[in-house]
Structures are given as structure tokens and as C-alpha cells.
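Hi support team,

I submitted a single chain yesterday and got back a structure, but I'm not sure I'm reading the C-alpha cell output correctly. Could someone confirm the output below corresponds to the sequence I sent? I've pasted both exactly as they appear in my results page.

Thanks,
R.
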Amino acid sequence: MVLYYELYVTGGVATLQLQAFHMSFGFYTFFIAASNLLSAFGAPAASLCDRFGRANLVVYGLLATGLLILGPRRWASGCSARCSAASS
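Hi R., thanks for writing in. Yes, this is the structure output for that exact sequence:
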């Protein structure tokens, strides 16, 4: 449903996108076709997600996203503290 909506919104502002991103019409058409092809391969994954449960998918997805974001930030803050101490 979201893809359907995004396709129509994107088509409505296509002339603005072409101008803003300095794209040719041929490249834009190829890009839209390739993204639709990739979304067709995502359909079987969506059916597996329906079996797993949407609420579970949201909870575990947010947990994984939070852990992925938290990990590099903790490492970067520790690295910056070590690097500033080493340069002093």
C-alpha cells in the first residue's frame, strides 16, 4: 500500500525531481523500473513477515535498529575520549 502511494506521489512531482537532481528522463524511467523490480522480489519476504506478526516485527525491528545505532555511538564516544587523551 505504501509503495502504491509513493509511486503516485513520485509521479506527480517527477518534473521537479528531474530538475532538482539533474536527471535525464531515460535515467529516471530506468530507476523507477528497477525499483519496481526490486519491490517485486520483496513480496515473498512480506508474506513471511505476515506469518511472524506485524507487532513482533515492529518490536524486534526497533530493538535491532536501536542496538545498531547504540553500538557505533558508544564506540565513537569512547574512541574520541581516548584520542583526545592521547593527543594531550
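A quick pointer for reading it: The chain has two domains: 1-52, 54-88. Let us know if anything else looks off.

Best,
Support desk
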